[in-house]
Amino acid sequence: MILELGEVKDKISDYDSILFSIFYHDIIYKATSKDNEEKSAELTKIRLEKLNIPNEKII
Description:
Layout: H1 2-7, H2 15-24, H3 36-50, H4 55-58
């Protein structure tokens, strides 16, 4: 996905946000778990807050 995103980078207004989203999608993954998406989102939110990303970009 990241390689394909690079092909259209010049057409994306907030490339860094999209790249971060791809990278952190299912960063937490356990095949038997049903809450991978939620746990990944929680971890991502924590890390974005530590980077002082505005809340309106996190939500």
